[in-house]
Amino acid sequence: MGQTDDLERWEVVVVGAGAAGLMAASRAAERGLKTLLLEKNPRPGIKILMSGGTRCNVTHSTDARGIVNAYGRQGPFLHSALAVLSPSDLLDWLNEEGVATKVESTGKVFPVSDKASDVLDALLRRLRRSGAKLSLGEPLRSLKRKGESFELKTPDRILTARNIIITTGGRSYPRSGTTGDGYTWAAQFGHTVVEPCPALTPITSDAIWVRKLQGVTVPDVAVRILPSSRTSSPKAQAGKEHSHQGKFRPLAEARVSFLFTHFGISGSPVLDVSRVVARHPDPVTLSVFCDFVPERSAEHLSAWLEKRCTQLGRRQIAVILSEILPRRLADTLCRLARIPEERSATEVSKSARRNLISAMKATSIPASGVMGFKKAEVTAGGVTLKEVDSKTMQSKLVPGLYFAGEILDLDGPIGGFNFQAAFSTGALAGEKITT
After folding, report:
1. E strand or H helix at 161, and its extent?
2. What is the homologous superfamily of the domain 6-198+378-432 according to CATH?
3. CA-to-CA distance for 290 and 287, rounded, in angstroms?
4. Among residues 430, 395, 433, which one has the least CA distance to residue 20?
5. How far apart are CA 370 and CA 306, in angstroms?
6. Do strands 217-227 and 203-204 pair parallel, antiparallel, or not at all (unpaired)?
7. How far is CA 190 from CA 183, 197, 385, in A?
8. Would you list the domain boundaries of the chain?
9. What distance in Å separates the CA atoms of residue 302 and residue 320, rounded to the nearest whole number?
10. What's the burial of 302, exposed, middle or buried (CB within 10 Å: 0-12/13-18/19+)?
11. What angle do CA 416, 420, 421 make, to 5 degrees?
C-alpha cells in the first residue's frame, strides 16, 4: 500500500453495492468507463435480499408521474432520473434479464418467483457483462480531493478516481451495512446533511389496551396523525375524537392494512405516517387517529347498527360489531365506548351507540415514538437535494462527486417507490458521468 500504479487508477469508483450502486456501476461501465464498485460487506445487495420479506418490491404499478406525485414536495427532483429509467423501463430491464414480474392488488410489483435473490442475480449478471469490477469486503476508510481527481484509501490499497458515486444508503436496517458512512464524506465536502431519521417504521404506544390487541389485523384502516387529545383515560376519549380532529389539519394520513403489535401498531398506513412521529421533537404529544371502517360513513354505520340491534336484540353488542371487525377489536371498542361487551343489543342506548360509532371511526391511539432505524425500511433525511443537480446527480459543490439512492434526502411511501428512486437515480448518475 502507498504506491498508486495504473491498475489503481479508475475513471469511476462507486461506493456501495446496493440497488443504486449496482445500477450506477453497470451504466457507467457500459459506456466504456473504467469502473470499480466498492462494497464493505462480504456480499453485495444485502438490503435487496432483506426487502419485502425477502421478496423485493422492486417498484409500483404506476408511471413516472405517479412516482413523482407519491414523493410530494421531493418528487420534482426525480423527473430526469425517471426519464432515464421509468417503472416500465425497469420492468423491461428485469424481463430482459430473465426476471418476470407481477403486480399485486396493492400496486406493489414483485418478481413472479417471490425471490429477492432473482433481482440481485439479475443486477450482478448485468454488472459482470458491463465490465465493471466488484470488490467485496473492502470498506472505504478515507476520501479526499486531489487536484481534479479523488484519492480513496481502503485497508488494502490506495485508489484514484476521476469520479465518485456515493451510494452507501442511509441508516435503515443497519445490519445490512447501511450505517450512515456516506454522510460523513458528504459533509466533509461541504454538503448539508438533513438530520437522518427512521421512516417506514412501526409506531410505538404505551397504551396497555393497544398492546393487548397484539396480532389483530384489520384489512382496511385510515390513519391520521394529530396533536393528542389525551385525557385521564382512554375511555374518556370516546365521543370526543371527531370534534378534536376537526380542529387540526392532520400532520400525515394514509390508508390500508393495519396491525396491532406487542409494542404498538404497524402495517402499511402506519409505516407511511411514521416519519412524522420520528421527526417530532415530542412524539408523546401526538396521537394516531384510526378509522377502522373507512369505507362506511358514520351515518351509514349508525343506520346499520340500529338495524342490526333491532333485528338481533338479544345478541351481545360486541358480537354484532364482529360482523365487520375482528372480535377482539370489537370487544375493545365497546370498552372504549363504555359499553360492557357482554351487553345485549337491546340494552344499548342511542347515545351509547353514538359513542360506539365514534370509537369505530376515530379511536385515538397515543404515540410514544417509533421503533427506530433497526426496523425502518428507509431513512428520511440525508444529503440535501438543493446541493445536487437533479439532471445528473452530480454535486453542485464538488465536480466529479455524485450521489444516488437513499443517501439523498429523498424518501417515499411504502410500495416500491423507494427502490424505484434508487434504481433511477443510480442509472442517471451512471449515464451522466463525464471524464
Report:
1. strand 158-166
2. FAD/NAD(P)-binding domain (3.50.50.60)
3. 9
4. 430
5. 39
6. unpaired
7. 11, 21, 14
8. 6-198+378-432, 203-370
9. 13
10. middle
11. 120
- The size of the chain, in residues, is 435
Indicate the burial class of 34 (C-beta count within 10 angstroms; 0-12, 13-18, 19 or more).
middle
Q: What pLDDT tens digit does each residue of the chain (435 aa) get? A: 334 344 489 999 999 999 999 999 999 999 999 999 999 999 999 999 998 889 999 999 999 999 999 999 999 999 999 999 999 999 999 999 999 999 999 999 999 999 999 999 999 999 999 999 999 999 999 999 999 999 999 999 999 999 999 999 998 878 777 788 999 999 999 999 999 999 999 999 999 999 999 999 999 999 999 998 654 344 444 444 444 555 668 899 999 899 999 999 999 989 999 999 999 999 999 999 999 999 999 999 999 999 999 999 899 999 999 999 999 999 999 999 999 878 899 999 999 999 999 999 999 999 999 998 988 999 999 999 999 999 999 999 999 999 999 999 999 999 999 999 999 999 999 999 987
| Per-residue cell: 47 | 438490503
Grid cell digits, residue 97: 434479464
Of all helices (H) and strands (E), which one includes residue 142?
A: strand 142-146
Neighbours of 323 (CB within 10 A): 11
Show the cell assigned to 170. 442511509
Report the amino acid identity of residue 371.
Answer: M
Which set of grid coordinates corresponds to residue 144? 479526499
Could you identify the residue written with the cell 416500491?
416
Cell numbers at 99, concatenated:
426476471
Name the grid cell of 17. Answer: 453495492
DSSP, residue by residue, 247-287: HS--SEEEEEEEEE-SSEEESHHHHHHHHHHHH-S-GGGEE
Q: Residue type for 221, please?
A: V
Q: Which set of grid coordinates corresponds to residue 108?
A: 406493489
Residue 217 burial by Cβ neighbours in a 10 Å radius (0-12, 13-18, 19+): middle
